Amino acid sequence: MPFIISNPLGLLALLGIPVVLFIHFLQRESRRLPVSTLFLLDHLQRQSVKGDRFDRLRQSLPLWLQLLGVVILTWLLIQPRWTSSRSVHRVVIVLDSSASMSAFRKELDLGLREKIPPLSASLGTTEYSLIPTTLSGENLYRGTSFEGMMASLQQWSPSAGSHSIEQSLRVGRSLAGIGGTLIFVTDHPQSALPFGAALLSVGNPIENAGFAGLMVETVGEETTWRATLRNFSDKALARRWVLASGNQRTEPRYVDLAPGETRTLQGKFPKAADRLSLILEPDRFPLDDEIFVVRPVPKLILVSRTGASNTEPVVASLLKSLENVRQSEAGETPDLVFATYNPLQPSEPPPTSVVFLNQEQVPRQFFKGLIVAANDPIIEDLDWQGLIARSTPSIPIEDGERVLLWQGDRPMILLRGKGSNAQLVFNFDVVHSNASRLPAFVILIHRFIHRIRERKVGLELTNSELRQTIVVAHDSSPGAPPLTLKTASGRLEIPIARSAQLQTPESPGFFQISQGETPLLNSSANFADPREADFSQAAARSEVESLPAEISKLQSTADPAWQLWIGILAVALLLSWYVLGRPDPEERNNVLSRKSEF
Predict the structure, then answer these.
(1) Residues 311, 441 within the same domain
(2) Residue 48 and residue 54: Cα distance in Å, rounded?
(3) Which of 130, 304, 473, 574 is in Cβ range 3.0-4.6 Å of 140 for a Cys bridge?
(4) Residue whose C-alpha is closest to residue 353's, from 290, 303, 405
């Protein structure tokens, strides 16, 4: 069984051995006492006649008893403990996946190599687990090799924004168990950690300037980009930046940033380019030194009109407010149909459509009653209180239909169908109402068409953030090919069953998603959490140094015979005192013989 010294300072008690030997080397000078008769002399120990000096070491029982006492006392003070070679100690290290950790990869490596091995230096087997705070579903490492754990760090790419660490620490504690060790590694120290986690912070304040935001706006055929550049440090910084599009780059431009200053860079997209990148002079935090920009283009929506001629002005004004929408041509299947319903000539509306109730005669009366909106996201926060509509016969209402808006007991707006077949039905005469002048009317139709875009399988161009969860419409029929995520570093196939967990890449750059030969998404992934770019509060701090002693107590057994050793020590001291206190038999016999002569 491996042996552990819990209190190394107890070894200082061994200094008592030379002290005892030193005392027994010394002999005292004998004193002359003039007496009249020898029989009045008390027994005296034989002593040196030359005074206090080093003499030969006289072996005696008190000497050995005192040395034994020193050894036993030392044994008790060092607090010996034993561990079993079969014992397993679990060390779970939770890595802060915040993007700011990417600036301290070297400090992280040095900190782990310095702090972690001493935790299990005297134990049998140590099982290491390495998990990120993003809880991606798989451990970075789990095994008994420290070097294997360090090698697995190469696969770790911290790029997440600010997030809660509580769930990851809860998982870490469940892996470590009650007697295991849980360590949270970060670059920004925290005052108190839950679940008995120990802090290991490897950060320090560094200077940083980078991109903190992006906005792209298209007006007509012209697209303008605006990028926000910020100095996060308390010192003035000068940086060079260039704009790259394809194989072309502009000349480097200089920007001077005062402490904490925010500057906006802007420009126009080249006419022949669909994407560009802004590149800043690199520093220790690379995630915000480059920003990738795609000219956003939503999915194309093909529309058709089958309504009455008097609804054409309303439909035409709506189409002008929609982006990337065009009239379907012969042979094309429309994604959306603007249709009308005449109560006097009823007909079934198209499966996916916006339906306006319409009749040729203008009603004289108006609807009365309170206007109440349903609790539905598509109509949330829309104000319909100014709606004025004329009383008309109703479209037949089916059981189970979702009514979005009521006026009195009249259902005014309905949402029918599910999945790819959906109908937004306006159950009042839109042409002879003021609905087209209400913002709520236009916004509602925009939201409905946005749902149609989301469900349509087609190409979309957009900008996104790192690790952003995205929904890409795709073919989910049996036998459909998997999704393919393509980045600058390679390709990744994603099974259809895992498409709901689809996320943008962890590293900034352009990427594409396709299914077979069908392109679905062209996009960019950019760092977008300025809080992670501020290193003013980063610091180095460690609570790991006190862990080895605690681990030794938990993973080892104390000396079960300590009470016996105390008893032996007491017996040795008492016996030594007794031997020193009684007269020497030889000297006593000599004195008695001399007395008999007289």
Answers:
(1) yes
(2) 10
(3) 130
(4) 303
Instruction: Tell me how far apart the alpha carbons of residues 559 and 33 are, in angstroms, rounded to a whole number.
Output: 54
pLDDT at 123: 63
CA 289-291-294 angle, 5° bins: 170
Last residue of a domain, one of 455, 478, 500: 455
CA atoms within a 13 Å half-sphere pointing along the CA-CB vector of 92:
23
> Minimal CA–CA distance to 77: which of 12, 10, 20?
10
User: What CATH number did the domain enclosing 338 receive?
Assistant: 3.40.50.880
Q: Which domain holds residue 41?
A: 3-82+560-597
How far is CA 115 from each of CA 155, 172, 183, 191, rounded to the nearest angstrom? Answer: 21, 18, 11, 20
Q: How far apart are CA 31 and CA 17, in angstroms?
A: 30
Q: What is the CATH number of the domain that holds 120?
A: 3.40.50.410
Dist. CA 334–CA 349, nearest whole Å: 14
Would 277 be classed as within a structural domain? no
At 207, is the pLDDT very low, low, confident or very high (cuts 50, 70, 90)? very high
Give per-residue pLDDT as tens, 358-380. 877 777 789 989 999 999 999 99
436/377 same-domain check: yes
Residue 79 is classified by DSSP as: -
The neighbour count for residue 426, using CB atoms within 10 Å, is 25
Sort strands 509-515 and 518-526 into parallel, antiparallel or unpaired: antiparallel
Q: Which two tokens stand for residue 584?
A: 């020497």
* Short-list 424, 396, 426, 394, CA closest to 410: 394
Same domain membership, residue 578 and residue 543: no
**Domains held by the chain: number:** 4
CA distance 514 to 459: 9
- From the list 373, 447, 370, the residue with the least C-alpha distance to 405 is 373
Two tokens, residue 461: 């161009």
pTM above threshold 0.90: no
Report d(CA 52, CA 30) in Å as an integer.
10
